[in-house]
Amino acid sequence: MTDFFKGIPAITYEGPETSNEFAFRHYNPNEMVMGKRMEDHLRFAIAYWHSFAWQGGDPFGGQTFDRPWFGDTMDLARLKADVAFEMFDILGAPFFCFHDADVRPEGEDFANSTRNLEEIVDYFAAKMESSKTKLLWGTANLFSHRRFMSGAATNPDPDVFAYAGATIKTCMDATHKLGGANYVLWGGREGYETLLNTDLTREIEQAGRMLSMVVEYKHKIGFNGTILIEPKPQEPAKHQYDYDVATVYGFLKRFGLENEVKVNIEQGHAILAGHSFEHELAMAASLGILGSIDINRNDYQSGWDTDQFPNNVPEMALAYYEVLKAGGFTTGGTNFDAKLRRQSLDPEDLILAHVGGMDACARGLKAAAAILENGTLEAMRAERYAGWNSDEARKMLSGEYALDDLEAYVRASGLNPEPRSGKQERLENLVNRFV
Ligand code: XLS
Ligand code: NI
Ligand code: NI
Q1: Beta-carbon neighbours within 5 Å of ion ligand 3
Q2: pLDDT value at residue 41
Q3: What is the pLDDT of residue 282?
Q4: What's the pLDDT score for residue 220?
Q5: Helix and strand tally (H, E) in the chain?
């Protein structure tokens, strides 16, 4: 045991009336929601990078956090792992997620970096034998080191493409060894700053080949997890190739990977793309590629990926409504891709941030389930489209009718459509009864 979280108890469910800050008021892992345990619906994961590797810097100043494991040695990497697994236990977290660079020091070359990663993976594996926490996903950090400044798979230099592919392979091996449920690719610097130095056509071809190699390797090693792409429209590159769910789907279709790869949708990235989170979830569900979510909250004024902890229950309700409607997570889950504000220095801040986030998600899930079980929203939506159940309407979509048939039909029937109310406010009132 380290003494980092000294005095902080394991968090348990005490119910909405409790005044104990170190307790869940809404997240009750064993409570049944629509026939499934809440823990199995939400599948919470702790993000290693924000909670244990991020130092509190911003563009105007460096490190504010003072953690005993900061530094570049393997001993400190093991101490970091000790503290991480203590936090997983305190929160009862069923999952965690990590990048290679979060968990091991960079070596002087590829072989040394990989050896460091393998040692930490063995250290994790030993801890996981006695911990309930499993791996939701692993990923490669192909954006922090300067070698990746012009991209990884989309780099103009084939040496960087090779280095990136080799790194992904080692991270897939690590994820496979730890029984990960998914493997994530967020296109960190897969984009560009200016067209003046960029061959966009070639770069997207490179990205397509890299993703195909990832899928080929998954099958080669018998990894049963899901490969997930995480869309994001901007930051770090001005133009990111994986802009949003619809863009990623077009990319997957082009390379014939739409049945092999799904998406990991992040709340803050949806907002940066000018969408709502629920739009991105609904779009992915509609395209059959909804995989997992990165939960956080963006500051709506800043235009940055501020990665705050989620605390907006009405937003969470609409998000989990889409997840539940899509049948819930299979391999995916709810990963806290969220970091403390840089003034939140204390170990307890880290715990309380997650407690609040988990409660906000739990409230959202319960509200979403209540709206679904009530059924009025779905019934009213179905009613809006009820006209399509007629024979004539079906012919319009089946190919039986061409444009000139439509003209004949309209003339013969004397159709003169009357607009009907969309009832938005009535539906908003309905939702508000449950949140
Ligand atoms: C950054 C991304 C990153 C991915 C994992 O904006 O959200 O944290 O989730 O590489
Ligand atoms: Ni993310
Ligand atoms: Ni993000």
Answers
A1: 266, 305
A2: 98
A3: 98
A4: 98
A5: 16, 14
Average pLDDT of the residues in 311-332: 98
Q: At what angle do helices 391-398 and 403-413 cross, to 10 degrees?
A: 160
For the chain, the average pLDDT equals 97
pLDDT at 63: 98
Helix axes 277-287 and 245-254, enclosed angle (nearest 10): 30
Concerning whether 99 is annotated as a catalytic residue, the answer is yes
CA of 394 from ligand 2 middle (Å) equals 42
Q: Which residues are placed with Cβ below 5 angstroms of ligand 2, an ion?
A: 266, 294, 337
What is the pTM (predicted TM-score) of this model?
Answer: 0.97
Q: Is 102 known to be catalytic?
A: yes
Q: Distance from the CA of 190 to the center of ligand 2, in angstroms?
A: 15
- For residue 366, the SS3 value is helix
423 vs 27, 193, 255, 281, 426, CA distance in Å? 33, 44, 41, 23, 5
pLDDT value for 302: 84
pLDDT at 303: 81
pLDDT at res. 300: 83
Question: Which residues on neighbouring strands pair with residue 185, listed in sequence order?
Answer: 229
In the chain, the amino acid numbered 241 is: Y
The pLDDT of residue 301 = 86
Active-site choice (100, 102, 173, 305): 102
Q: Is 232 touching ligand 1 by the criterion CB < 6 Å?
A: yes
Domains of the chain: 32-374 (3.20.20.150), 387-432 (no CATH)
Phi, psi for 350 (deg, rounded to 5): -65, -40
Q: Which two tokens stand for residue 426?
A: 């009535």
Neighbours of 413 (CB within 10 A): 9
